Amino acid sequence: MAKRFFSKSSFWNQPICDARTDLKSDQYMGLLAQEPNGPFGINLEKWTVPVFEVDQSVPRRKVSVRTYTDQELTEKGSKWVGVGDRFGHFPDFANRGVPVPDYAQADPAGDAHMAIVDWTRNMVWDMWAVKRDKYGNFSSNTGMSYRLSGEGVFMTSDFPVKDGESIHFYGPSRAAGVPAIAGLIMHDEVAEGGISHRLACATRYNAYKEFVYPACWTDGYCDGGIPEGAVIQLDPDLDIGKFDLTAGERIVAKALQEYGAVNVDNAGGTSLYAEGLWARPGKSWHGILTNTGLMHIPVDHYRVLELGEVTRMGDSKRSAAAKNPSANSS
């Protein structure tokens, strides 16, 4: 039976009940409507997170946390810093090590995410920008460990991040400061016929320095965009049977109706995240999910739920199209 991440009381495991539509929902959906293919794509083979389950038989190995030189920081034009061992979320990486199996492979795309889950220890380790050298040694730009049975939500005050910086280098590998595994579409749960948690999504129209719970940070760069942490819901009364979807895609659509998707990151389109299955012999999304199947459902069947309190701070990076999101290309 597929296991669900985090506690029963976790935000990520709560169905939508009696929620109201945000007053700016039409504005936000208007931004997503500018996508040439509409929402939602599903990241299956890259730009997502592989999850490797281990137990105490897998030996720990050191995962070096890379830091940046002054020259690299200047080239980035950023205040980003590599915190190495200084911050409390990192001790397992540099001291005790992480139980990374030999066959583990990070996301082959630029984000190079990877997560290690150990149900016997009740722990998860997640990383971003993971590299493996020719000797088999792993390193990462950031990483953190946390309890599988926890709430799966972090507070901004948990990190010494300052307005204008990226939260990546203080632990979280998602720009919204949420766990990398939160909201993933897992192969086993789809195979068993149901998803009982909120999903994670990304858009190219995320608000500049605006986020709401459960996000604790943002890398959005669009004025008037959708705050990271916002929940997008598919109309629960919509008959999804009338759309050309695989059985797996109908399961995902049902989860979008019952639980919604949380905006957790910037992307080059509007996408959900399915567990990365490379280096997992015997498991595949082929015939279960496709990258584009959910795009058959038009954007006007979605809404943004009423936002909570908006926090106005975050990463200061900008895009040339920041003040004109419609100018962004796909």
Please report the total strand number as a whole number: 15
Low-confidence stretches: 68-89, 323-330
The helix content is 10-25%
Shape: globular
Radius of gyration: 19 Å
Strand order within the widest beta sheet: 1-14-9-13-12-15
| Amount of beta strand | 15-25%
Distance between the termini: 38 Å
Q: Calculate the mean pLDDT score and round it.
A: 88
Number of separate helices: 5
SSE series: HEEEHHEEEEEHEEEEHEEE
How many domains make up the 3D coordinates? Answer: 1
Notes on the structure:
It is a single chain. The chain is of the alpha/beta class and about 325 residues long. It has one domain (about 10-320). Helix content is about 10%, strand content about 20%. The protein contains five helices and 15 strands. The strands form four sheets. The protein has a six-stranded mixed beta sheet with strand order 1-14-9-13-12-15, sandwiched between helices. A hairpin with a 4-residue loop joins strand 4 (about 115-120) and strand 5 (about 125-130). The N and C termini lie far apart (about 40 Å).
